[in-house]
Every structure is written in C-alpha cells, then in structure tokens.
Amino acid sequence: MSKPVIRFQSPAHDERVSSRIGIWLAVAFGVCFVTGLISHGIQHSWFWWPSRPVHLYHLTQGLHVTSGVAAIPLLLAKLWSVYPKLFERPLVRSVPHALERGSILVLSGAVFFETVTGVFNVAQNYLWGFYFPTAHYAVAWVAVGSILVHVAVKLPVVRRGLARPVDGSRRRFLRTTWLASGVAVLATAGGTVAFLRPVSPLSTRSDRGPQGVAVNRTARAAGIVVPEDWRLEVWAPSGIRRFTRAELAALPQTTARLPIACVEGWSATADWTGVPVADLLRLVGVAPGAAVRVESLEPTGLYRASTLPGPHTADPDTLLALRINGEDLAPDHGYPCRIIAPNRPGVLQTKWVSRLEVR
C-alpha cells in the first residue's frame, strides 16, 4: 500500500509570500544586529563614542529592542510560509541540498535562541546559567552569517517570488503579518518612546521606581553599605584628594536633563544635579578630557567599575550627581553619589561611587 502524500493547500505556503516577508525580516534583523553591535562595542570600549547628542544611545538601543520585537511575528509568518519544505522527500537529494538544509537548521536555531533570550532579557527574567551578553553576542554572529548564506542560496527564488504579484488570500496574509508586527511594536515600544506608554501595555514602565525613575539593581541587591565616614576619593598624578558629601554639595552645582537608557531597551529622562566631572578634574590639576576610572561601593559585580572616556569627562553635563528631580538621590539611585553622563548605556552610569581615578 502506498503512503499518503502530504499536501499543503494554504496560499501562504508560497514563494511570493515567503520572499516578501523574508525581505522585511532581513531588515528587522539587520537593524537589530547593527544596533546590538553598537551597544556591545560601547560597553567594551571598542571604538570612540561621542557624548552628543545626548539621546543617541537611547535611540540606538530602543531600535535594537523594537526591531527584535517586530521580527517575532515576521519570523512566525516566515516559518509558516515555508514549513512544508520540512516534509519534502527525499530528505536529502544531494550534497548541496544537504548543506542547504543544514544551514537552515543552524539559522532557525540561532534566530530562535536570539529571539527567546532577548525577550527574557528585556523582562529581566534569566532562566539560564550562562552570561547573557556574551552568549547573545556570539550567537548573533552565527545568526547573521547563516542568514547571509541562506539569502545567497535562495536569491534566485527571492527574485522570482518578488517579481510575481500577490493577490487574494496571500495579500490578506501579508497584511495580517504587517499588522501583527505593528501591534507587537506598539505594545512594547513605550519603554523607549515616552508618549506611547499609555497605550503600550507590555512595555517596561520606565517612570515606575523611586523618585519617578526605574532601577534595575537596588542597593540591597548590590549589597551596598555606605560607611559613616564615606569620602569620595579622586586619584590624580598630583595625589589623592578626598571629599565629604557636604563638601561636594558645597561646590558649584550643575543641573542637566539627561536620559537613563538601559540595555534592556527602557529609558527615562530626569533632572540630575551635581558636580561636573570636568570641574572635579580641574580641582586636582587635571585637564578635562582625560579618561577616568569610576569605582563603586558595590563589593562584586561586572559593572562595579566603569571608565569614562575623554569626550565624556570634557562634557559639561557629565556629572557626579547628588540629586535627582530636586531630591537627594535615593539609595537605589546611587546615594551618596553616582555618575550620569550623556549618551551612555545605563550599566555604565555607575552608582554608589567611591573613587575616581585619572587614567
């Protein structure tokens, strides 16, 4: 008795559909990959990054998360349009065919890993034992490489599919896909775009937190204990100078309206008041523009220290902040003082500062 032939009758299982969705999926992944590289490179000081415009990192990281979210409905629709290929027989027709199917397996696994771990990272829900940034960065290269190979192999099919018009239910399927992608973006983009928050139910509410600004790591979680005799130490070639918080508060203060832009995609803008780092450098005989290592009271953690590059220490709005929105910093925002610099990832805006060291 012959085996029944599996037939797929849905009009969506068509190269005209998969080619069009594939183009938009490639755009979404391309934007996500490039903006992710920017964020990763800034955190590892791989290239020069300016202090202006102050919202540039806010924009690039918002695009990173938003394009990743937009890709999810596109990815599901793409898989639906091509999954009958999984049932083709014979399973392998030739060595090139085997390589093609293997590359699709790598592509699917890498994209699935990036999408799922990215969504969990945005939600700050870590169910795995590996370090997310390193794994996410490494697999991103695998995903992009496999996408390029796939596009190169399927380019004749893509051209043929784009050249043929779509109509009827295929057009409706494409419109539904665009709509689903748009709804996903609208539901989450409020974490980046402030005016969308009232209609963005799945966004990180950046305005919910102490003093109207969200926090990722609380003082308790970081194990912060501020000594009664706390002093800020500024290490320079001329020696070490120490400041009490009262002495810092007595210095000329600057207020700057700056965003905190988190790697998870959320951002919040606040009025920060404190001493410009450039002024502190001048007090210890150092010209603004020198790189400065910033150390925290946090006893452990990958981000207990950061380095402020020269463009940021020279910027008059790079502050050793003492106040936020007219109030002394809450412990969760970095009391007794923290760094707030324009156009920097939130993880590098070091809180609970104990030492500045000129490099």
Automatic annotation (TrEMBL):
Key word Transmembrane present: yes
UniProt keywords, alphabetically: Membrane, Transmembrane, Transmembrane helix
Gene3D superfamilies in UniProt: Oxidoreductase, molybdopterin-binding domain
Domain of life: Bacteria
Alphabetical list of SUPFAM superfamilies matching this protein: Oxidoreductase molybdopterin-binding domain, Transmembrane di-heme cytochromes
Domain (Oxidoreductase molybdopterin-binding) ranges: 226-358
Membrane spanning residue stretches: 21-42, 62-83, 104-123, 135-157, 178-196
PANTHER family in alphabetical order: BLL0505 PROTEIN, PROTEIN-METHIONINE-SULFOXIDE REDUCTASE
Official protein name in the record: Molybdopterin-dependent oxidoreductase
Organism: Actinokineospora xionganensis
